[in-house]
Fold:
Amino acid sequence: MAEENSIYYTEGLPVPETPEAGESPAFWKDTDIVGKRKPRVDAYERLSGTAVYPADLKLPNMIYGAIRRCPYPHARVTRVDTSKARNMPGVHAIVTGDSPEARDLKWSYQDYEGPLFDSHCRFEGEVVAAVAAATKYQAHDAAQAIEITYKELPHLTDYQHALEPDAPQVHDKGNLVGRDTYERGDISTGFSEADVVLDQEYNTACQIHTPLEPHGCVANWDGDYLTVWESSQGVYAVQSELAEILGLPLTKVRVIGHYMGGGFGSKLAPGKYTVLATLLAKKAARPVKMTLSREETYLCVGNRPASSMQLKAGAKKDGTITALDFSCRGPSGAYPAGGTALVDWLIRDLYTCGNVRCNSEDVYINSGTVRPFRAPGHPQCSWALEQMMDTLADKIGMDPLEIRLKNIPTISQGRGVPYTSTGLKRCIEEGARQFGWHEAVKQAREHNSSKSHIKRGVGMGSCVWYVGGGSPPATVIIRVFRDGSVNLNMGASDIGTGTKTVMAMVAAEELGVKPEVIQIEHADTATTQYATPSGGSKTVPTESPTVRNAAIDAKQQLLEMAASDLNVEASDLVYKGTHIVSSKDPAKRLKVTEISRLKKRGVVVGTGYRGPNPENKTVNPFAAQFCELEVNTQTGQIEILRFLGAHDSGRVLNRLTYDNQVFGGIVMGIGFGTTEFRQLDSKQTGKLCNGNWHDYKVPTALDIPVDMESLPIEINDPEANNTGAKGLGEPVTIPTAAAISNALYMATGVRFTQAPVTPMEVCRRLSAHKEA
Amino acid sequence: MCSEHNCNNDDQQSGLSRRDFMKFMGVGAMGVSLTGTSMASGSTPQPPEKILDATDSVKIKLHINGREHAVLVEPRWTLLYVIRESLGMSGTKIGCGRGECGACTVLIDNQPRYACMTLAVEAEGRHITTLEGLMQGESLGPVQTAFLEEDAFQCGYCSPGQIMAVEGLLRQKPDPTLDEIRIGVSGNLCRCGAYKHIFRAAQKAAQLKRS
Structure:
């Protein structure tokens, strides 16, 4: 053990006051570590190649899994013959719907429960059989050698026709998953008060998550104890689902997810592939690695559903929104999965409006099911609402900023309770100032008065995110060892958002140590504390107050221990990081590492729990984004010149990773708005036509502006939680596409209501406009 | 979608050409010839000395990060598969297995290449550098350090490929322009969208390498 403990504790780092037991900690005023630009604590592992992602894991005797999937969008499996495959080289195990270990297993989609292997395949990519073999190649060969006979059934892949009487039926009870309605005020009164009423249809295409690491896992049994390394956003969610499906107690299912290569919502839960890996591993008595191919990830692990939206809106000449009437249709896929989930939220909540009506209609089609995708429903709704706001502004001769500022709500109208804080107004005002909005508008208009076929536009959009305030439950443990080093133990996954780094910074701030000396254990159901999955932009606002509570608990215990050494009351003592000092008599001081009970016990264990959210209030992040672009009216090429994201996500915990998140959300929004769409061959085979990165375009380094700026709007929000942080990961991608479309309107005078706006779409619409 | 370095397969200077590849594979979809020299640039087509079944194994030597590895491979195994699964070097990632994302980018004779589009048998006799080969002992190399300091990643899964693309670029162009950097990493997808920080990291890496 080091004689000087400076390797762990840094002399002179200010430390926040320790609250009395049972009291809430004071809101941080100034911070020394939190909020700074701090490279990630796990950067070395991720950049040296030592980080082991589930796709990288290699266990002794490990073999490889492969899945044979239904090639039709709708078919019945009539025969599965594995006799040839069984005898192929390297094959260890095959599982089908007839296998005893699989026959009784169930798989659920929301309230729908069906067999794990369903001979009625309702989407292309449904599992029919799975193989484990010595090499990936052998597994693939054997899977392909399984002889399967199908009876093809009529398929439905165009959701717009789902409810027509002669539409092929995905389920016996019809193609309607469900309807949702919402109403406040009186819509007809609202429209009668309006000076301008507009009615417009908007459409967005189906977007696929496609994280860089394909979905996958490694499954291993030690007797009847199962361990699964899953590429996951939430190990506890995977554990509970696997335990339920396999009929095991939670303690017999250990799920580990230290590293994962992106999820964006598609890895909140396990897949059928996970269950198949566990069955194959059991049967083969060997660990099995099951990594999906890229094509498989396009078929069966989620998407952001397409949406067809109709929005009728009324406004007075002064910009007051008098009525919003919104309807939406979207497809869940082959099973109930939230085809229209939250698509109407911005209508309900973002701008002040007394008269609102929302109708949504979720339908079945023969395709893979929806999974939550970064701000479910919101970018779709933003596409409609933000364009409508601009169109209304245009009609009444108002600036797009002004009409939004005119309608800033003071309460969350969708819930009828106040926000703990709202930065919507500041995001719009300060974002516009930083962006140079008025100047940019002026310049674009001047530019467009020339004869050039390159037109320029600026556009903006703002948003709220449905949640983003975090919530209980969460438990975190912080251990202070006798040499003063610190271990932080939490169950949350770091999905690339920098969770580990941010939590180390919070612990370091509270304990007066450097973040890099904190060892982090996370995302393991056997050894780390309970956490809900990293999604909903809730990890930071859920875990950071919990980490703070754990650190405070450790400090309180250290003060108690030091009090008996120094013969004073613990309440007289101040925790100073390296030392504990009496507030009354500065001579009475003790190094933390010299506390006798700490030396004897070896460790102090601080436990933190996530406290409740404020009652009758809601915690939400807000944002406004601004973009400038040029469009070539001859080729349809859009060049986005710059973007600015002004985000109110409460306190910024790490400016470096914060900015990265803002830029990343904008990039994904650029994809949603301009490049990405799932193409199903609706008229003929019903199959996916572009299930790969060649044919399905995600933004590359050449498709995004170099000039991207992040402007945090930090508002003290002690009511939100004890760190004042709100979620960021989702709002960053909500208004992006709408801002682009609004800029395109300024550039061309044409409303692009169909996302994505590809060069072909630009040309098509501009020609139509010219002819009209 | 694709950068110069990944599409420029007809450049005889930069490794295996598409024509040579077809020649090499010309014995049929399930067979592969073992002429030994078929990768050599500009060689005239020779009839194969031996035709192997795809599942037969052959012994090859791969020169990776300055070390020679003798490995038994099936001719159809990709360089990526052998690096990851036979040799256990998991720094090189698999994202698509079909030459679209660049997560598997390695340097072959200093050129960035998709290891998923390169058969292991093709890579024999070449100098292969993977992410691990950029380490200086236990320390990160200059490009890796720049990625750390500029936070040029989120989930980190595309990072090995991005880093190798930048490394390959800087070996050819020690002082690249921003546009050259963007083109240099345009064959490497980052779904987290950390591109802006990747550009900055590439600029910083160029500085670090010069100093």
About this structure: Strands of chain B lie at 31-33, 51-53, 58-64, 67-73, 105-108, 111-114, 127-129. Confidence is low (pLDDT under 50) at residues 1-40 of chain B.
